UniProtKB/TrEMBL annotation:
<dbReference type="Pfam" id="PF12242">
    <property type="entry name" value="Eno-Rase_NADH_b"/>
</dbReference>
<dbReference type="InterPro" id="IPR050048">
    <property type="entry name" value="FabV-like_NADH_b"/>
</dbReference>
<protein>
    <submittedName>
        <fullName>Enoyl-[acyl-carrier-protein] reductase [NADH]</fullName>
    </submittedName>
</protein>
<dbReference type="GO" id="GO:0051287">
    <property type="term" value="F:NAD binding"/>
</dbReference>
<feature type="domain" description="Trans-2-enoyl-CoA reductase-like NAD(P)H binding">
    <location>
        <begin position="1"/>
        <end position="73"/>
    </location>
</feature>
<dbReference type="GO" id="GO:0004318">
    <property type="term" value="F:enoyl-[acyl-carrier-protein] reductase (NADH) activity"/>
</dbReference>
<dbReference type="GO" id="GO:0006633">
    <property type="term" value="P:fatty acid biosynthetic process"/>
</dbReference>
<dbReference type="GO" id="GO:0050343">
    <property type="term" value="F:trans-2-enoyl-CoA reductase (NADH) activity"/>
</dbReference>
<dbReference type="InterPro" id="IPR010758">
    <property type="entry name" value="Trans-2-enoyl-CoA_reductase"/>
</dbReference>
Length: 111
């Protein structure tokens, strides 16, 4: 994936970089071990693929071990083999939640 810039912003995202970012956030939550059994058990997160939504998704899934459903809009570009960072973030989140046996479903849709 070649970086493409629009002014000072990079408009391409790298899947390994996004996965590494999600892994670091999960590691931080698990390492702190601040969350016990008190907390939400079922959570709906709207805008779950980046920013506060992704952070909420990670904390509730991996911190509280709540069952989460996330709604996001991320595009997979099948013709040019790249996607936006939200799509890669959710792919990584699903990968790690499956490895740890946690329930995390994410719905890709456009309002």
């Amino acid at each position: 994936i070649k970086p493409r810039f629009r002014k000072s912003f990079c408009i391409t995202s790298h899947p390994i970089g996004c996965e590494y970012n999600v892994y670091n956030q999960i590691y931080y939550v698990k390492k702190r071990n601040l969350f016990l059994k008190e907390g939400p058990k079922k959570v709906l997160i709207i805008g779950s693929s980046s920013g506060f939504g992704l952070a909420s998704n990670i904390v509730t899934t991996f911190g509280f071990e709540a069952k989460t459903i996330g709604v996001f809009h991320g595009e997979k570009n099948y013709f040019q083999n790249y996607s936006n960072e939200g799509w890669y973030n959710i792919a990584a989140l699903n990968k790690f939640s499956k490895i740890l046996g946690l329930y995390s479903k994410n719905i890709n849709c456009d309002a």
